[in-house]
Amino acid sequence: MAKVSRIPDKHTLMVRTEIEVYASAEKLPKNDQLLLAKAKLAVKNAYAPYSHFQVGAAVRLQNGKIILGNNQENAAYPSGLCAERVAIFQAGALYPNVAVKSIAISCKSIIKPVLEPVTPCGACRQSIAEYELRSGKPIRIIMSGEKGAVYVVNSISSLLPLLFNASILK
Ligand code: THU
After folding, report:
1. pLDDT tier at 166, thresholds 50, 70, 90
2. How far is the CA of 71 from the centre of ligand 1 (A)?
3. 29 is a domain residue
4. Residue 37: is its pLDDT beyond 70?
5. What would the DSSP string read from start to end of 50-76?
6. Is the CB of 70 under 6 A from ligand 1?
7. 44 in any annotated domain
8. CATH number of the domain residue 69 falls in
9. Structural domain contains residue 73
10. Can you give the residue range of the structural domain that contains 63?
């Protein structure tokens, strides 16, 4: 007699994600507010002559250090880098064995006011995931526009479900 498989031919996997929405930066917990203020400062040094979209990021490390980054564009467009990766790579370069606790992101456009939170691009999400997996500790991500609502997630897995990770390589 043929064995009856209990696995259906097809089923749907539902992915649920949770994003905290704060009405404004002032409503954030103090630590997040401070980090976001640093990210806003970092926006000022962005080099974005092509998109005119300036992004700043501030990374808080387990040892209390805060590392800043901003987008660095290039005439050969793909050679530029986003603020999040500039900041997190710099953190990894300076403090290779210290876990990243959180990252705050802010932005400003010369073209029009940004009234919604900027969320990291796919490549930045994958890069943030690498640091989370490296330390084994979740990274809190605080995302804001120029003003208005602020999004917060407690792990990159909320922004990048089913993320690619090195365990599949072994
Ligand atoms: N950018 C960032 O730096 N971070 C983001 O989260 C989104 C996009 C930059 C890349 C480019 O310099 C400009 O914003 C427009 O895409």
Report:
1. confident
2. 6
3. yes
4. yes
5. TT-EEEEEEEEETTS-EEEEE-B--SS
6. no
7. yes
8. 3.40.140.10
9. yes
10. 20-168
CA 60 / ligand 1 centre spacing (Å): 20
Closest ligand 1 atom to 51 CA: 15
Closest by Cα among 112, 114, 121, 122 to 144? 114
Find the 36 Cα to ligand 1 centroid distance in Å. 17
Please tell me the total count of domains within the chain: 1
In a domain, 117, yes or no: yes
Chain mean position to CA 125: 6
Q: For residue 7, count CB atoms less than 10 angstroms from its CB and return exposed for 0-12, middle for 13-18, buried for 19 or more.
A: exposed
| pLDDT band of 1, cuts 50, 70, 90 | low
Q: For the segment 126-135, what is each residue's pLDDT rounded down to a tens digit?
A: 999 999 999 9
Distance separating alpha carbons of residues 26 and 56, to the nearest angstrom: 18
Our answer on whether the CB atom of 84 is closer than 6 Å to any ligand 1 atom is: yes
Q: Compute CA 134 distance to the chain's CA centroid, rounded to the nearest angstrom.
A: 16
* CB 59 within 8 Å of CB 91: yes
Confirm or reject: Cβ of 157 under 6 Å from ligand 1: no
